Amino acid sequence: MASNVPGFRPQSQLFWKFLMVMKITWKKEMNSSHQASFDIENPYAPLVNSLQEELESLSPLSSGCNIYKVPEALREVNARAYTPRVVSIGPLHYGKEGLKAKEEHKKSDKFAEIILIDAAFVIELLLRSRFDELKGESERICVQDVRVDMLCLENQVPFFILEDLFDPDKVTGLSQHDNIIELSSKFFKRTIQGRRTEDNLSSTRLTEVKHFVDLVRLLHLPSKEQGKGEVETVKAPTVTELHQAGVKFKAGSSSNLFDIQFNEDEGILEIPKLTVGFATEVQLRNIIAYEQLYRKERYMNDYVVFIDRLVSTPKDVDLLIKYGIIENFRGDSNEAATLINNLARGALFKRKRFYFASVCDGLNKYYRTSWHRWKANLKQNYFNTPWAIISFIAAVVLLLLTLTQTINSLITISWGKQN
Asked: Which contacts (CB < 8 Å, 24+ apart) does range 8-17 have?
């Protein structure tokens, strides 16, 4: 673990205990009697042995690999979103030469040392975040940058290491509910789009979680599976076009990012709130990369494809901001629109298995109905203010009076001619 964060100095007994583990485990010259003594006194020695066994069991193309290099096709869109800026965790960004991450390095003592020291750092960071009294002023300032770095797919530590290392019974002040998943989800709470659901948290088992990117992905899973289907067309109307067709936008009440609903009868599109900023880009891009590499269900992939279809210009962003759907920390609406469109670059679009197929088809059907566009045009251009409505009513009344007067005049003339 390499860090240039002032204030994040590994000072806890936990960290130094693990440094001692490393010193004991990898000391090259040690007689057998001393080694036996150390094994008895060191309660964490089984973890070291377990890690070594895990590493030795991996084949060169092991399916157990969950920490990947991001494909170049994704990285070239925005390399900054995949590269840690403040703290490196794991071997891929260790120093300046870790990017190669060769397989032979994976089995080395140095790799195990990096992983264990980084795991100790991560757990100390989670505990410091949990207890305010453990935070220094500089840590409060830099913790957000560290949190974002820990969402980079190439900047991970295996979760089973954290699970084996963390012992809540030895930390004063922790409740029985403060397991490693609970601590981690609290740490990333401000980063997760929407609000995490307790159902997702309670159903997330330690055996399922591979690393932090995987944990955040799991916490984002849809609260209600709506099923993937075949989308009728790749094209979809933008927010501006939908607005002109009379679609009403509403910030979704759901706590889940993927719970997008369209009510065709009322013409209401509900979209949960999305925060647009650099942290959002890092989070979404790395989850998408993980979905592609680990062949997971591509919820986030399909989400950015869908949002990209809706947003084409800054005007689309302005409308979504107006209705409380987007919170923009990216500067102006043009930058936000560019970020959203770039998110979809490298995303995979499968027309026959698209999570938002029913929503897209419903929007296209509504937009193609001429009556909806005509009604919306009348309302937006002629009945957009109370005064416009009053003026229209007055004009109609005047027209009726004029028409009545004209009819009366014609009747009078016709009657006069007959007499």
From this structure: 8/87, 8/121, 8/125, 8/138, 8/139, 8/142, 8/146, 10/120, 10/121, 10/124, 12/124, 12/127, 14/120, 14/123, 14/124, 14/127, 15/117, 15/120, 15/121, 15/124, 17/44, 17/120
DSSP structure class, residue 250: E
Q: At residue 227, does pLDDT exceed 90?
A: no
Instruction: Give residue-wise pLDDT tens across range 132-159.
Output: 666 665 555 467 778 999 999 999 998 9
Q: Residue 3 in contact with residue 88, Cβ under 8 Å? A: yes
- Strand pairing of 274-276 and 326-328? parallel
The whole-chain average pLDDT of the chain stands at 76
Residue with the bigger pLDDT between 368 and 1: it is 368
CB 356 within 8 A of CB 309: no
Q: Given pLDDT bands bounded at 50, 70 and 90, which one contains residue 73?
A: confident
- Planar angle of CA 167, 173, 176, nearest 5 degrees: 55
The closest alpha carbon to 347, from 282, 300, 278, 314, belongs to: 300
pLDDT above 60: residue 22: no
Q: Which two tokens stand for residue 245?
A: 């067709």
Contact 129, 147 (CB under 8 A): no
CB 106 within 8 A of CB 91: yes
Please identify which residue in the block is written with the tokens 């014609």.
410
Per DSSP (E only), the strands in 278-400 are 326-328
Residue of 104, 197, 91, 239 lying closest to 154 (CA atoms): 91
Per-residue pLDDT at 205? 58
**Rounded distance, CA 321 to CA 49, Å?**
53
Strand-strand pairing, 261-263 and 248-251: unpaired
238 near 315, Cβ under 8 Å? Answer: no
The rounded distance, in Å, linking the Cα atoms of 237 and 247 is 11
Amino acid at 221: L
- Here the tokens at position 28 are 């090259």
pLDDT at 46 over 90: no
| Structure-block tokens of residue 213 | 């990117």
Work out the angle between the directed axes of helices 357-368 and 299-310 (0-180°, nearest 10): 20
**Higher model confidence: residue 91 or residue 34?**
91
Which is more confidently placed, 387 or 64? 387
Q: How many residues does the chain have?
A: 419
Residue 243 in this model has a pLDDT that exceeds 50: yes
Annotate 356-378 with DSSP letters as a single string: THHHHHHHHHHHH-HHHHHHHHH
Which residues have C-beta within 8 Å of that of residue 419, sequence separation ≥ 6?
A: none
Q: Report how far residue 336's alpha carbon sits from residue 327's, in angstroms, rounded to the nearest whole number.
A: 10
